[in-house]
Amino acid sequence: MEGEDVKTEASKSTVFEMMARRDRERKMANEKNQKARQNKTEKEGIQYFESVFDGKVCEIETTLDAMVTSKDLVQLQEEFNSIVRDLQDLQKYFTSSTFFLSDHKIKTCQNVINQLLTKSDETKSRLLPKKKFGFKNKSSKTKQDSDIQDGQVKLEIKEPKRKEFLWTESQKTNQLLKYSGDQVNNQDLTFKEMENCVIFINGHAGSLQMSKMKNCLVLCGAVSRSVFADNVENCTFAFACQQLRLHSSTFCNIYILVTSRAIIEDCKDINIAPNTYSYTEYESDLQKSGLDGSINNWENVGDFNWLSTDMPSPNWNPIKDDEKINDWSQYINDFINAQNITSD
Fold this sequence. Notes:
Elements (H helix, E strand, L loop, with lengths): L1 H65 L6 H25 L5 H25 L6 E3 L5 E8 L2 E7 L3 E3 L4 E5 L1 E5 L1 H4 L3 E8 L2 E8 L1 E8 L2 E17 L2 E12 L2 E9 L3 E4 L2 E7 L7 H8 L11 E3 L12 E3 L9 H12 L2 E2 L1
């Protein structure tokens, strides 16, 4: 009997081991199949994204290449407006897909979008040249003399003098500059070599570019397309835009509403927070710019010098709550007094 019990126990042990082995094999097979399905899903998702993204890029490029100067100016403007909307849709689609794209793919696609934006701006500048903005003297064309000689009416017209207004500001120090919506709407603004300056920009600019800025405060409304800045140091910015590119910059505080992924490169000590600056017409300017104020990717910052996915970039940080600017009026006044700033 004892021998039979031993055999029975051994048989049971063998059965249990076999069942356990089969259970392990089943679990391993399930994990393998699940991983395979996951990889297949991710692969199909990337392939679908590439198909849609490449198709839209090709469509926009084809439209731009097909534009000719013989078209009616109104029609050209409508087509450019349509391209702007297409680019915004493309940027939104790309931004919503970044969670499953590699850093290399993100960088490549963002560069493609930036090239399309540049090509669109260049094409528009070529086919729809901007009128030079200027402030006309109050005097208009007047009839200086009107004589009748030999039955002929003699008219002498005096041409008004014009004072041209240059959009690019440069080499300003310790100055306060203000720009109204009527001046900047849909315009491309550039500032360079500015130090200890305060710049107010209301309205909805087309784009904003800043270079070699030091210890400046730039408070801007909505920017329909991109904000690009390089070589800026110890500056504070506040603005809304479609995309932000920041290069070779240090010790900057940025209060931003951005509808796509912000990009930094060769930067350090960059502090970022949601935009809290506003003025009376801000919401109206935001709407007219075409930006979606309900979307803010201020925390979705891509650092091209930090490709690790396991650890956050050390080159930028969210601004701590106790360090945020809560009273902009007081901050502006303190900044102006500290830098001995005068109006331009």
